[in-house]
Amino acid sequence: MAAAASSTNRPGALEITRRLAGICGPPFARFAGAADEVAGRTARWVAVPGGPRAAAEVLRLAAAHGLTVVPRGAGTKIDWGAAPEQVDIMLDTGRLAGVWHEPQGTALAEVGAGTPLRAVQSALERSGRRLPIDAPSPGATLGGVLAADETGPLRHRHGTPCAQLVGVRYLDAEGELVSLGEAGTAQLGRAAPAATGAAHRGAAAAFGRSDLPGLDLARLLCGSQGGLGVLVSATLRVQAMPAGRVWVSRPVWTPLEVHDLVRAVLAAGLDPAAVELDLPVPLPLPRRRVHPAHPSVVHRPDHPAVTGRSTRPAAAGSLVVLLEGGPAHVAERAGRLVELLGDEAAVSHAAPEWWGRYPFGPGDTALRVEVPINDLHAAVYALRDAAGAPVPVRGSAGVGVVHAALPGSLPPERVAQILAAVRGVLVARQGRCVVVSAPGAVRRAVDLWGELPTLSRLRAAKAHFDPSHRLAPGRLPGGL
After folding, report:
1. Is the predicted pLDDT of residue 142 greater than 50, yes or no?
2. Of the residues 78, 158, 302, 392, which has the fewest C-beta atoms closer than 10 A?
């Protein structure tokens, strides 16, 4: 913080501030404060441009003075990933907001990057529609959700937010507006169609393909943490709100039980919208069970024959399946699902309290595990065994993507040991364990991503989209 503060006293700092105020308006440009951090790295200035043209001017100013730029939406995931090498200008997208363009007769909507996702859903709900996106971060903007490719329970049926993307408008590191895919019709910047075409051809050459569709390039921005461009707007698919929704829950005791239940649910042809797992406590090791009629236990005072109660232990967690569709069809499928899951299954018209929430909190080391669903139980056991302590796990059991929380008090070397052990189990199963966020000491000491087969493609993308490494430098894997 002290270093960042002193940098604003260098010659020219006041001139930069004056120029930013001229672009954004005096209330919307300032020296950064203590809260203006990106994964612990404090910015020098904060600029809140009032539209795409003003955002482009901020980027041109940064380019002219060799300044770095990191976009920020609502800041809900600003501590995710690696810290950038330097943050000169934090470009706040809060004024790039609104549902801008809804082509008549199409199931599409163009939405400003700075629009809170909740506001988008509220606007669409008035006409009986929604985005099939349910990112867990409260208050997240659409741009932030796309920049992190953040997904919630609906990932099971609809995939990630990137899968709903049909076009984007973004600003490159030089401040040129580029449109890719079906990105609306308004000309919001000084980029001409020829410039867009040149960007398309250049990127195709960078990846060794001359026929690379614009949508493929647009989707490179998903998960890029602002390191490839500053998202201005996104055009996404919308769908009708489901008329009926029910959640069918079932307590679970062991990872192998979860494995069997998930396989049964997916094989039953029930078309679930989501299949979520919540394990808030450590799972017990499998134990050799003694038959209740064995002489060694039959006369014990806690035996069921004496107490009249079941001796089954409290459940370790729950598996919950969301069904969506027409009310009659949902009711019929729910009945079949209850029959499949057994007497312990329950139907509710409201989601459980933990639904769509992460198992980690501020200060925790948050992990994301991606593994084929047949190996999810192995990943859960590996986490528990490596940590040797309670490891809350929650996420989409139906697609093999879950999150876990390690206590923030664990020293970096212990976190590194846990990561090495878990990744060792996952590598043979074609799985991954990624550190989503962590205390600064942990973030600096451990490998956040592990092996990344697509690193060469990401490096080519960075070289094409941001050859001067001006956009969020160091934020991406490999120090890109």
Report:
1. yes
2. 302
Report which secondary-structure segment, H or E, holds 166.
strand 165-171
pLDDT tens for each residue of 355-369: 999 999 999 999 999
Q: 70 forms bridges with which residues in the sheet? A: 90
pLDDT in tens, 38-48: 998 999 999 99
Cα distances from 50 to residues 24, 55, 94, 399, 447, in angstroms, run 6, 7, 8, 40, 38
Instruction: Give CA angle at 159 (164, 242), nearest 5°.
Output: 75
Class of residue 437 by CB neighbours under 10 A (exposed 0-12, middle 13-18, buried 19+) = buried
Contact by Cβ (8 Å): 323, 340: no
Let me know the angle formed at the C-alpha of 285 by 280 and 289, rounded to the nearest 5 degrees: 120
Q: Residue 395 in contact with residue 277, Cβ under 8 Å?
A: yes
Query: Which amino acid, residue 189?
Result: G
pLDDT tier at 104, thresholds 50, 70, 90: low
pTM reported for the whole predicted model: 0.85
User: Band of the pLDDT at 290, cuts 50, 70, 90?
Assistant: very low
Helix (H, G, I), strand (E, B), or coil: what is residue 13?
helix
Residues 222 and 146 sit within 8 Å (Cβ to Cβ): yes
As a three-state string, the secondary structure of 340-392 is HHCCCCEEECCCCCCCCCCCCCCCCEEEEEECCHHHHHHHHHHHHHHHCCCCC
